[in-house]
Amino acid sequence: MPIHACGAYNFNSLMEVLSYWKPDTYGTGKLFTIHRLDRLTSGLVLIAKSSSLAKSLSRCIVERDNCQKLYLARVKGKFPDILQNIDHPWRLACWKSNKKEVAKCVDGEENTVETQLKRRKNATVPPISHGEVTLDDVCINGGVQLQLTDNNSKKQSKKSKKIETQRCIAALGFWITDGDGNLIENATLQDFTKQGEIMTAREIIESVGSDLSNEFQQSSKRSVRWLHIACPCRISSHKNGVCEAGDFSGKSESELADIKPAQAAFTLLSYDEATDTSLLLVKPDTGRMHQIRLHLQALGHPIANDHRYGGELWFGDEEGQKSFRNSRQWLDRLDKGSSSSELTISNVPATEEEIYQVVANKSRADGESIEDFIKKTCVWCARCRGVDAIHNLEGSAEEVKRKTEVAVFQRTLMEYLVRSQGIWLHALQYSLNINDEKGQRFVKYTTEFPSWAL
Length: 454
Known about the structure:
By secondary structure, the protein is of the alpha+beta class. The protein has helices at residues 14-21, 23-26, 51-63, 98-101, 113-123, 189-198, 201-209, 215-223, 253-256, 291-298, 318-334, 352-358, 370-376, 379-385, 388-391, 397-417; strands at residues 32-33, 42-43, 47-48, 67-76, 94-97, 128-129, 132-133, 138-141, 144-156, 163-177, 226-230, 233-237, 242-245, 263-272, 277-284, 425-436, 439-446. Mean pLDDT is 78; it is low at 97-106, 119-123, 154-158, 337-344 and 386-391.
């Protein structure tokens, strides 16, 4: 369910459900949203009881460096299969900064071969932050750079006094690091599978998301391999809530305006050979719409049951897939032979005739609840009531009512079977460094593993 009312969801949202459940405690104006999850994503949602706390926590998330988010995802294939292709055009084999290469030893540090190698090793980590290239003096081997207009960063020109939109360079590429952030240029698929043999999924998560206090935990964290990807995203259809990610270098200037830099990191927790799926731990660095789903699709490992971005509805469930196919055929026939198998009664755009018949010149009557008014003026509710099985009902009023309820229930059941009820993406943990009027403090919120990750 969505966090708050939006689109076709007027009541079935988290905030509305909480308000209805305990109006005295969670009613309107008593809870404040901090962030949002995609409607199909499960897991942790932070909600504050005061506006001041909501602002503090929201600021941590927006500033990014003060918040670490951990997600779980079950994806197709053995992650990261992309490493099998050593010549992949997105692979960032070596990014070097001339300034860092000639950096001198800090006070008290011996100028040994080991320290020189360490500095050079750190220097090769891509100078990318939040999906943007942050240095100009770099020699890049691999990947793509995309010049974008950053609509969120604007400055006033001293000469013209006009507000000028800033430019940014979005990066498209991937690289591998250890848990300390050091680049591993020759990482292989085996490096990722090996860590699953040494540590359990929970041990990996604990080493990543904990305050490390001993050498064992530090060593465990260091041994974890992370695949980082910087890959710009954009909303391709606001109406249908569809996004895309990838190489936009061929787009026109106007099309580039809506593209945003994005970055995330992934590590392997386990691989299940029977289903050919991998369980991943995800650290999103930015929070673009559908970003994790898009980045996994771009890497060739879509979330297994995310049918919108490369997965399959009812993944691994033959009975569910059979019911889906039968329901789709039934709905297509009922909807008078829709030309596209992707369209159902609930997402085919409303026609002008329908809008006129259902909505035009209708106002809310005195004493009429908002729920009844929405039902009265909803095109999709009217479609559901207007199926052929209802149009031709005969018999007494009681029989007509009963048959109508049966027809509507059948429609509802078919709609349920052709729609995703949730994907294998789960918000597991949020760690935040809060700095407000109460001082600076560190807080961590964690939820349980979902059933598909056990």
